[in-house]
Specification:
Elements: H1 2-63, H2 76-85, H3 89-95, E1 99-106, E2 116-123, E3 128-129, H4 141-152, H5 160-170, H6 184-189, H7 220-224, H8 227-230, E4 232-233, E5 246-247, H9 250-254, E6 255-256, E7 263-264, H10 270-273, H11 287-300, H12 322-332, E8 346-347, E9 353-362, E10 365-376, E11 379-387
Parallel strand pairs: 3-6, 7-8
Antiparallel strand pairs: 1-2, 2-9, 4-5, 9-10, 10-11
């Protein structure tokens, strides 16, 4: 009897142990399922946050052209009153200068734990669209490239390979440009710049628009002189230090792969202004630099105490149109004169292309989207859209 009771006790213990393991497994699976469901729920939530951010971005992009600029005599009360009527007043004003940032802001002010969203918008017409600067896109493409390479530091007698080979990479045919161009045959036969290096290229010219400026590094001339793109020594094989030319990375600062091919004079940098025909090709040495400097000083005056002498009546702030630019430059800019050719490249009001970045965050989970959009017929059209880049 004692043995039977002992066996029954052992069996009961085993049954309890097995049931305990099953219960723990069920509990673990329940916790895991709950965690997965929570994660999925929050992923959906942060996705919705970015969608809310996209709606805000569209409102700002569509309306910023209509918002009134801040004036020197605007009081705090007037600003607060305008803000009550338009919640996005400040971002819309900021976007007129080329960039605005909204947030981080809670989507539900009554429930801060519901998540936050951040929106950044940058105008894209402050740089030249490199895809328009070829023989089939702009009659003055070579002049603009000459000005860019001059700023970069490329010797005058060595600029043709960069310009011709870019044109062959971008154009839509297989005809070689000039004496320094490069089509498929040149890439197929390429064997490097040194006798000790064989580097045959496994690609050919795109013959279409490039999606990224980094692709310039594939073009033979840029490949052999990487400093032209990134800044640094022009000829890496030059051994004599006194003969080394150091380049600046102007190309990456003045070019983009999106845009109309025109430049917003109110947001462009000095480097960009200096490569615009009518400005960069000024006759007198140093005049182009003076013109670009005056444009920046006049349009930005009032933002810094050092430029308060320009903050008089309508003589400061963004330029309204070509006549306004010429008039104010003549009145305040000094002796510098803008050539009429610049009129074909400058725009003044509202831009068409924008870059946006939106991030939604909740309970430690984030979702980011980046895109390029254009405003057309009072609608926002997305040209690029990337989730969690």
């Amino acid at each position: 009897m004692t043995g039977k009771r002992g066996s029954a006790l052992v069996l009961a213990i085993w049954i309890i142990a097995v049931l305990s393991i099953l219960v723990m497994n069920f509990a673990g699976e329940a916790r895991l399922t709950t965690g997965v469901n929570l994660y999925i729920r929050e992923r959906v939530h942060v996705f919705n946050l970015t969608e809310a951010g996209r709606a805000v971005a569209e409102v700002v992009m569509l309306n910023y052209k209509n918002v009134a600029d801040a004036s020197e005599d605007e009081t705090d009360e007037q600003y607060e009153e305008a803000l009550e009527k338009n919640r996005w007043l400040q971002p819309e004003r900021d976007l007129k200068t080329g960039r605005c940032r909204i947030g981080p802001m809670p989507v539900d002010h009554l429930n801060p734990d519901a998540g936050i969203v951040t929106v950044e918008i940058t105008t894209k017409e402050s740089k030249f669209n490199i895809n328009t600067l070829y023989q089939g896109g702009d009659a003055n493409y070579r002049d603009i490239w000459e000005l860019v390479l001059e700023q970069t530091g490329v010797p005058e007698d060595e600029r043709d390979p960069f310009i011709d080979q870019w044109n062959d990479w971008r154009d839509n045919d297989s005809a070689k440009t000039g004496d320094e161009g490069a089509e498929e045959e040149e890439y197929r036969k390429y064997d490097g710049t040194s006798k000790n290096r064989i580097d045959r290229l496994g690609y050919k010219p795109r013959n279409n628009e490039i999606p990224d400026l980094k692709e310039l590094a594939k073009i033979i001339a840029f490949r052999e002189h990487p400093g032209v793109l990134t800044g640094g020594v022009y000829d890496p094989e030059e051994e004599r230090e006194q003969d080394r030319i150091v380049c600046t990375n102007v190309i990456m600062k003045v070019f983009d792969v999106i845009g109309s091919g025109k430049i917003n004079v109110n947001t462009a940098s000095k480097e960009v202004l200096k490569i615009i025909p009518g400005i960069g090709d000024a006759d007198n040495e140093g005049e182009a630099d003076d013109i670009a400097e005056s444009i920046c000083r006049i349009r930005d005056a009032g933002n810094a105490d050092a430029d308060r002498k320009f903050a008089q009546d309508d003589d400061y702030g963004p330029f309204k149109d070509w006549n306004d630019l010429v008039t104010r430059m003549d009145r305040l800019g000094g002796s510098e004169t803008i050539g009429s050719a610049a009129q074909n490249y400058l725009i003044f009001a509202p831009e068409t292309y924008f870059e946006i970045a939106i991030t939604g965050t909740s309970l430690g989970i984030s979702h980011t989207v980046k895109g390029v959009a254009m405003v057309k017929d009072n609608k926002v059209v997305y040209l690029r859209w990337q989730e969690d880049p």
